[in-house]
Amino acid sequence: MSEPAKNVASNLQYDLLTPHSGAEFHNIDLSADVSQNVIDEIENLLVTYGVVFFRDQQLTREQHRNLVARFGQLHIHPAAPAPEGFPEIIVIHSDAKSKGVAGSGWHSDVSCDPQPPAASMLYMKSMPAVGGDTLFSNMYAAYDALSDSLKTYLEGLTAVHSGADVYRGGSYKKEAAGGRLPVSEHPVIRTHPVSKRKALFVNYGFTRQLVGLPRRESDNMLRFLFDHVNDPHFQVRFAWQPGSIAFWDNRCVQHYPTDDYFPASRTAERVTLSGDTPCYEEA
Amino acid sequence: MSADAQRSEVTLNKTLLTGACGAILHDIDLAKGVDASLFNAIDQALMEHGVIFFRDQVITREQHKAFGRLFGELHYHPAAPGPEGHPEILIIHADEKSTFSAGQGWHSDVSCDAEPPMGSILQLESVPDTGGDTLFSNMYAAYEALSDRMRNLITGMSAIHSGKHVYQGRYNVAADEMVREYPESEHPIVRTHPVTKKPALFVNSGFTTQIVGMKPKESKAILEHLYQHIALPDFQCRFKWEPNSMAFWDNRCMQHHAVFDYWPQVRHGERVTVAGDKPFYDDAA
């Protein structure tokens, strides 16, 4: 076996799963007292590689929620039902009765919100022996890979993100979203508030239109960008086990849940961090 | 070898990579040779999973070629002559001088040939610490996931596959040889796998240029859609190489994509390619 890229920082050990995306931590028990140093280092890797992974964790709902709260303010999902007593937790479950996760495609969580979530931590409870991987695509790398002229074209543009199709017939809680419809306008190139790096911020799941462009041009450019996000060069593919945790930064990665395990049963729980209004800062 | 051949008596210890394709076969040392029952088991695993992987295989070129010959005649690459004495071997190499690497983008190997390869057996000796993964996509699953209307449209149609734009200038073949060296072929868009008899999508972004009998704009739109469809992760696995890992994929029902994200590190290995038959579509299958 090849010697993976071992790195040590704050006594934390991790491997990079691919050059751009995904750091997997070793020898850390998240149910124990985690020092502020370690929290800072996790956040540092999160905003750099877009997603970090942990294996073999055993967390209660309270520990899961409290851990994520160390990184910021918790977000209440506008559409998803929560377990009794834990409004900050979303249970993600599919089984033989599910229509599957088909068609959800590449997305950034709830980007139709005016202030989309900053990050999400998904904790896998049970799953099939094989299948149900999640892919993550690094949007700094996607931005960096564009030609200079296309970067110039996109910078300063905004796009409409709508949850109308996604949550159609569902339980989008307008009240929880302050009575707003799930439609927002966000910059196409977003400056990450922590890393200050530029990231592509349109996604197949929610983005519907580039503002101010003729519809045909908008449609064709979005089609190109959605395809660009799906380039394996920017991605990591994560195979879950029970007890695995993925913690991703919605501001600089998109993710894709694969639909290859029907009719097996899979259950996970997610806690989400509130985010700020996406902005673009000219460097 | 046909699916009707003697069933395997060997039970392989294997790990599936995803719900869509790919299995790592354990406890096999190809340098020790492959007897008939082991061959049957490996062949069945290849038919079942589309691509199979072996770890820690230290083999000579002769052993690599002999393993390939169990599955059929070996294929000679039309544009890349092999090393001295081994014309059937394709060297795969990228380092700090590389501006591209072979196999980027979704493709089926040498589909521009009239009889494209049945399968390819790649062994990598040197791999980067991180990066250089290969992705595989299952074309049975991709076909199944198309709408009924789209399946009806493309089934029975054919498309042109050309090698010229892929190989030109890459392998130092003299210009006057190009016409002879760069084949172009017409293949069915939906292909019946000769062994499993299942339908598989058989157009790829590397070689396919045009759907026959369609207006150019229609052809472009349909192909663009099919290429995006093939690239969906639901049909795929992503393989992380170690030194001396080997991958064997069935070109008739799989496409692959070699990620070039490790520059300037070295990634080096050799491929033996098994010859295949002329693609066909059989609506009775």
Structure, described:
The complex is a heterodimer of chains A (283) and B (285). In chain A, strand 2 and strand 3 form a beta hairpin. With 283 residues, chain A is α+β, with helices and mostly antiparallel strands. Chain A is globular and about 50 Å long. Chain A has one domain: Clavaminate synthase-like (Double-stranded beta-helix, 4-Layer Sandwich), CATH 3.60.130.10. The N terminus of chain A is likely disordered. Chain A starts with 5 loop residues before the first strand and ends in a 10-residue tail after the last strand. Chain B is of the alpha+beta class and 285 residues long. Chain B has a single domain, classed as 4-Layer Sandwich (Double-stranded beta-helix), CATH 3.60.130. In chain B, a hairpin with a 6-residue loop joins strand 1 and strand 2. Chain B is globular. The chains are: A alpha+beta (283), B alpha+beta (285). At the A-B interface, loops of A face strand 12 of B.
